[in-house]
Structures are given as C-alpha cells and as structure tokens.
Amino acid sequence: MQADHDALAMAGLNLIEQALTIYDGELRLAVCNRRFQEMFTLPDSLVTPGADFAATIRYLAERGDYGDVGEVESFVASRVEIARAFEPHYMERTRANGTTISVEGTPLPQGGWVTVYTDITRTKRQEALLRARSEELSDQLLSYSEDLATANRALQATITALEEAKREITEAEARMRLTAEMMPAHIAHIAPDGRYTYSNRRLTAIMPGSLAEPVGVHAAEVLGPETWAVLAPQLERAHAGTPSTFEFTHEPSSHRVRVALTPDPTSGGVYILSMDITRETQARAALQQTRRREMAAQLTSGLAHDFANLLTIILGLQSRLGRMGLPREARGLIDATIAAARRGGGLLGRIADMSGAREYAPVPTDLAAFLHDLETLARSALPSGVALRIEAGASGRYLLDPGMLQDSLLNLILNARDACAPVGTITVAVRALQETWLEFTVTDTGPGFSEEALAHGLDPFFTTKGGEGSGLGLPMVFDMTKLAGGRIVLENADAGGRVALRLPLRPAGDARPPGLVLLVEDSPDLRSTLRDMLRGAGHTVIEAASVDEASALLADLPEISAVLSDLVLEGARTGLDLARLPRPEGCALVLMTSLPPEHPLHRAAAAAAPVLRKPFTAAQLDAALSAGDRP
Fold first, then answer.
1. Whole-angstrom distance, CA of residue 451 vs CA of residue 491
2. By CB count within 10 A, which of 71, 379, 427, 542 is most buried?
3. Which phi and psi (to 5°) does residue 402 adopt?
4. Is 521 helix (H, G, I), strand (E, B) or coil?
5. Residue-wise pLDDT tens digits, 107-133
6. At the top level of CATH, which class does the domain 2-161 belong to?
7. CB 408 within 8 A of CB 477
C-alpha cells in the first residue's frame, strides 16, 4: 500500500513543468522528479536518492553551467557552506546555454530543503521585446516594472515560507494542547485579577464540584468558598513572585490534592498544576504507620522483656507469701498485688499487639456478611438495656482486612457500651463517602466526648475510665486504621459520641462462583471441617493428603477451579512446592498455615500466594478463594 502511494506521488511530480529536488540535512538527495534531470542534463548517478549535493555542483561547474567560476573546488566548498546554513531564498540565473531559470528554496522542519527550478527564458524574452517596442516609456518606468516583477516573485516565495511556518506553529499548538489534556493533572493559568485565562479539562476530575468551564471566571467562583479559602493566601504570594508547593484536603470530595504555583513574570499571573494524590497519601500513611510500629517495637521489646520478667517474679513471690499463713489482712494485699501484676501482663500483651509485626492484609470481603458476623459477636457483649442498630448504606464486596476491621469496630462498640450503659442505643453505620472512602461510624447515646477526650483520645494510655481503663483501646483502633491507609475522626453527634473510621474505597468485584476445589490437608479431622466449609459455600470438593496426590489430580482434572492447601503436608514436599506446579487455566491457589508470620516458610509462601492464618472463618476462606493467585 505504501509503495503504491509513493509511486502515485512520483507520477504526479513528473507531470509538473518545474524541476523539483529535496535534499536532507546531510546534503543527500531524497527526492527529485524527471524534469530535474532533463533541465540540467544530469547522469543517472546524480538523480538517484542518496546522491551527494557537492558532486552535483561539481559536475555542473566543471561543465561550465555556472560560467567562469575560477578554482572549481573552492566554488563547490562555498556552495556547500551556503547549503549547510540554508535560508529561504529566490534568485534568477542565466545558464551557460543561454536559458534563464528561477530558483526558489525553502527549508524543511526535519532538516534539509526543497527547491523548485522554473525555466523563465520565454518570460525574459517577452520582457526584452516589451523594452524594445516601448521606447516611448521612460527608462525609470521600465526599470520599475522589472523590479516589481522580481519583487513579486520573491514575495511569493516569502509567502510560501510563511504559510509553512504558520502550519508548523498550528501543529505544535495542537500537540501541546493534546499533551496538556492527556496529563493526569489540572493545568491552568490565572491572571493578576484572579480570573482563569487557560485551563485543561481535568479540573472537575481533580476537584469534583468545581466549575467545568473556568476560563474568564474568577477562581473564587470556580473553586467554591472552602477551596478558595485555602488557595487564596498561597495565590497571593505567588502573584508577588514566590513559588510554592503544598497539599490540602478538598473537602467537597475528600480528595487529597497537591498544588504547585509558579509565578508568570511576563504577565504577573500564576501557572497552577494540581494533582489528585489521595491514593499516594493513603499508601504514605500506611507506610508511616508501619515505620512507627517498627520503631515502637524496637524501643519497647527490651523493656517489655525485662518488665515481663519482673512481673513473673512478683507473681511468684506473692504466691509464696499466700502459702505462708499470713493474717487475713495480708491476704487481701497479696490478692490485690497479684491482680495488679496480671493487669500489667495484659497491658504488655496489648502493647505487643500495637507494636508487633501484624500487617494489613486486605481480601475481597462481602459487606453484608461482615456486618452480620459483627452484629452476632457484638450483641453477646451488650447488656439487655443497650440496643444495637446496624445501618448498611453500602453493599457489595470491598478489599478489607476483615479481622483487623472487626477488632476495631468491636473495640469501639465496647467503648460505646461503657459510655451509654445501662440504657442506650449504639448505631453502627457504613457508607461510601465521595467515591474515596468506605466510612464506618459507631455512634452512642451517651454524654459524648469531653474536650480533653477529643484532643487526646487517640494518645496511648489516655483514659476517662479511671483505674478500669488501659488507655490503649482507641490507640489500637488508630493504629489499625492507619495501617490500612485510612483516617479516624472523633466528634460529638447530636446525642452522644461518634467515631468514624475512613478506609480506602476499593471495590473487589463479584465473588468467585462455586466450582471444584482441591483440598490438600494431611489431618483427617481438619480436612473434614474444611470440607464442610467449602460445601457450605456451594463448592464440590476432592481431597489429597500430599503434594504427590495433589499433582496427579491437577494433571487429570482440568476442571479444578481452586486449590486450598496446607503449608506443612505429609511427606517431604510442602504447599510451597505445590504452588510451583502447573495448574489449570483460571485455577486459584490459597495456602493456609498455623506457622507464625516470621517463620521462613510462611514468608516464602506469602510471596507466592495468599496465605490464611489458622483458625479462620468460612467468610474469610471464601474471600481468600475469590482473591486467590491465578496462573
């Protein structure tokens, strides 16, 4: 197709009366028509693509086409030098054979130039005849006519060059605008009077609710009062010549936005670059919390070890005192000391939970099933006078760590119980917030948070329960929420306190349909329990006790849709070996274990496939199978 197109173009060039050449930036012939060879009587070697410009000039000079040029090589070198610094031009030249040609040259944007040669011998003869037959015309008028004709030809060449330059500028502007529209950021320019003079079409994607067509409108009207209150002081400094980069939360959408302001010294305006960094901020918050936990673990591990030893000694000594037949009054002191030591041991356990190696492990979680399980667990811990309401403003499946989230919500429900008992109502609500967060709120009908509690409620060891509280409940919830890249908000509602957990909104899609599951477990009792879980979810189950048995079944049964395998199995091979075996197309793999996360085999398995910690629920198993590793 391209060869036909090229042949068609060359046929057209060969039909025009003018000679045409295109030389590239290396002074090599790229294209010429047949008229060029005919006009200058050139050999085939000089009209073949790749022919050297200098060789053509040398050939014409040696033949006398330019007249007496003196030393030929010097003449050729000067013409090559002019060509390398090529500029648009128009000239007329009388050849040695008496013909006159016009030469019109225009540079190309890719390098090189295009030249058109026109035989104007007849035109020149007509001008001479006119001069001979018009002796009555003054010499001044005749000269003026000739100059005007020459100027017109030169002007036409200039117009052609200008039109080409205009086309190139138009194309460059179109490319620049397309690039600006494709960038995942809002790019704009604001004049000194605060009005937009330019904006690409990304403003409403970065800051939803803003005016879609902002050009010519003041920024306060475009962005709304809340956003303008944040931007206005920064914009004022940028208009004064100080660039800045800052982040803020766009309240109407909850997007986290990074803004860069660059002064425009030519107009006094400001260039604006805005980017939605919500996911980056969520990931950054999770990483920072992980680092804080690591630091806390390093700082507390040695102290906790020594403190645990001291508590063990205290408990041992108190037990010995209890066996020494001391008076009844001493027995009460001994019991109180033992209770305090045990409470200290409980505090150590909770500190270990906050600073330990637990990681956020999101899996596809059905929201309705999760809330049902939460309600079942929570009702058993509430007195008869405290009611529990569940309000599901969102449904479907989301990427969540159900165990971590359940621990957080149960902690908040127990705090709410203590706040409103013996009579009251606790409301647990969930909703999707501005397509950015999945928000869980726990509200009670108690007295609400004090000003001190609002300011310090998330601080470790702060408590309003006196000696009954550890002050680690809300900090644990804060820790687990931050590990997920989320936010926690304490506030007072119309009646009582309210705690909101905002987790990144990550829809997980539909659940895996029931299929044939290969269960690989060497314990008959555990295999029976897992078989019931899988059948309860609608799956058909086949079983194996070793990697060798599982390998044979995978090879013979291509309809297997998922594999659930223990890490430690009968024989020398492990579930990790099973993960390396070929599986049918679309077959998920989930590994399970009771080994601690720091065990080398557990670490290696986590890099190969999702790993379920024993024990687990049927909902956790279903979520893991839906998110399982696929070949």
1. 10
2. 427
3. -60, -35
4. coil
5. 887 778 889 999 888 878 777 777 666
6. alpha beta
7. yes
